Amino acid sequence: MTQARTNAFYAQSGGVTAVINASACGVIETARQHTDRIGTVYAGRNGILGALAEDLIDTSLESPEAIAALRSTPSGAFGSCRYKLKSLEKNRREYERLIEVFKAHGIGYFFYNGGGDSADTCFKVSQLSQSMGYPLQAIHVPKTIDNDLPITDCCPGFGSVAKYVALSTLEASLDVRSMAATSTKVFVIEVMGRHAGWIAAAGGLVEDHGIPVVILFPEIEFDEAKFLARVDAMVKQHGYCSVVVSEGAHHPDGTFLAEQGTRDAFGHAQLGGAAPVVANMIKTALGHKFHWAVADYLQRAARHVASATDVRQAYELGARAVELALEGRNSVMPTIDRISDVPYEYRIGVATLDTVANVEKMMPRDFISEDGFGITDKCRRYLAPLIEGEDYPAYRNGLPVYVTLKNQAVAKKLPAFALA
Amino acid sequence: MTQARTNAFYAQSGGVTAVINASACGVIETARQHTDRIGTVYAGRNGILGALAEDLIDTSLESPEAIAALRSTPSGAFGSCRYKLKSLEKNRREYERLIEVFKAHGIGYFFYNGGGDSADTCFKVSQLSQSMGYPLQAIHVPKTIDNDLPITDCCPGFGSVAKYVALSTLEASLDVRSMAATSTKVFVIEVMGRHAGWIAAAGGLVEDHGIPVVILFPEIEFDEAKFLARVDAMVKQHGYCSVVVSEGAHHPDGTFLAEQGTRDAFGHAQLGGAAPVVANMIKTALGHKFHWAVADYLQRAARHVASATDVRQAYELGARAVELALEGRNSVMPTIDRISDVPYEYRIGVATLDTVANVEKMMPRDFISEDGFGITDKCRRYLAPLIEGEDYPAYRNGLPVYVTLKNQAVAKKLPAFALA
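ok -> structure tokens follow
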């Protein structure tokens, strides 16, 4: 247990979100309140790569205003990376390098902000530091739009994507409803979530607004005939309908809808996503005019319409991570523990990383309606509070004021290190 | 000149927008302030089709609150349609039918809310009513996200799309900047605008935020080698870049980028848009990992982040249309006349429909940078005030409160009418 004053290291990992910087803000602001115990907070430039390359950012050079502005800035302010450390056995060298860098810069606190893979890395770094006798407290700060971390009720980043998807589906559906008499009758929107349908499920929230919607989940094997019959029935009843398709929607043989063997004029493999495939299927079978959208990064970067619940939780989990470190905890992750749906109440709990690493939380089957094309009331009760509240960024000249930090590098002390 | 009290007819035409209902709100609220001169405002269900079919909506049955809520509701509250009346010579029958329906329901004011085609229809209806001796004042209310109407400085609907595109490009670009070290280096977003690059131009506003962006306009013939060289240079200089591609971007022979002969496994014509084509081109030539988005309806329905300038102007033009009618004007359209860029000042002017109908306003060449991939300062000065200001809708349970009207039909008085 670290009691002396020591520096901290913070890094962002994997796909960034609308609120991962809110967690960074929570970490840094809370650390700054404890200068007796925490010296400088260093950030890894481009995530854990910054630690491996000893490319550290000195966050103490950022003004309180700049750090506060992180709360309303999407993306990863220090850069993130897609780089998964191999197992300890296969690449012990990289783990040891991390410890060396931490040692060289007097770092006793390691805050790693990411999803399942980074929880695993965080866990291993913690184990290795113990076996090497280096005093390090490794705390994982949860983040993933995929909402697939175990134990925590939800993951920061997800609520804002869910709000974006529900909102976009609502707005586009009203548009289609206006046009359906003579023009577009089906609108297809493709959303993220290769393994789990949490994000696609959010599209189901528009049913409360009277919008007919059909959802294609990765959890449900695609049945073209059944799907087309459902769309046909919706259009016959309402005059129009919207389809929310997960990028992970797939055929019974496991191939994604997006991979249907499309080739361009030069024979290159298909270019499009699932949305155009589904839209074309509807056009061919039912003859309806369609429009389709692929939200892609827009959904996870949409800080302008972030969920206030999500922003608050992202901040709180970052802040709590620092408190856990100060309380002497190691190899843990703060969690959202839901107390009640209505009124929405939760407390911040804590999970040990051995129970988090390498466990994926899938969407329960009873969140998906029996026919597989919609969400249940249970799912609705789960999702509703997560999109609650607006937390608008400031605007200047018609666009949000998002901060770009100075990100000044710390002088290196070690020899260069080549990645495996 | 109508001096007696008479009813009014209002219809929405063509693709709907985030603010066309704000114009409807302006028309109806202003008409309700002049009950001495204007009786009931009838709306056409699904635009002009409602007039032809004598399917009129009685807007007097909607509460003041519901009408006020139109100001912050996207889409077309009464339904719109894509239906262009043929020339007077070719289908005089339809024009005469309109007059018959107006006569049957005591309608002396015709407010038509749309783009170039509807301005033309409005003009012809006005001419025919005069030649038939039926007292009708036809006023066109401008609306088009394409921003291509002449005389008026801008068109309601455009400013909000421009804001959405600039904002989305900004947010997604920050995301890519975070990921570029190990993952995505190029983000491609496809936007609307088949004939003119006004919407794509809005993506250029993010350059003020330090974002490297390459724009593909419909006005500039696509040159693959030059484009790839530009993207390559941007990525080399900044580590990443964003591409905003207009759906109207095309090769020198006129074929759209989206139509590059892609076939699916069944030989169906291509499914995707321009964005995946451009992204794949970059991947093939430069090897960069990419992400792409197609905003489609999301951009024109995005009332949640509408431009306050746009909402205000949409309302004002609707209101002014009614005043023009009360002033005895016929065959005119209220316009936005810009007085100055900074501070932004404008007044509401008026144009006669003979000068509006069938004239498309293209983007001036000096709004596009010399190399064809960006916007000029002149364009920036033009666009900046149009995206200025936020006008948030109210929210309930995490989603905007958008109104759905009762849209109760008026009893028919005429025999049915078959469309040609």
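The domain at 158-301 of chain B is CATH 3.40.50.460 (Rossmann fold).
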